[in-house]
Write a structure and sequence with these properties.
By secondary structure, the protein is mainly alpha-helical.
Amino acid sequence: LITAVGAGQWTSYGDIAQVVGLPALAIGQHISSCGNCPDGAYRVMAQAGVPSDGFHWTDADDVRDLRDVLADEGLIFDAAGRAGGEQHLGPSALTARVKSTSRGQDRTDT
């Protein structure tokens, strides 16, 4: 599912949770501790379109600011620091995108 979220887009832990049938907290914990999650896992944010308070890069030496990285990819944040709703991929958009790219193969990576 993470690979379905392209540059300039975002989704939430809750959106992925709805698709896979797990609690959002479990998704967040998995992503934050996963050294093997696909590139782009940083595009998964809290439901309000803000980076999780506990966000950290998997490389402890990586000091990039997440908002700067996302903005460089084209994600637009409002004055309150929330990512734009028009760039949000909700559960149905994620499901549709995975189905269109998997061509019938079972895709369960989160």
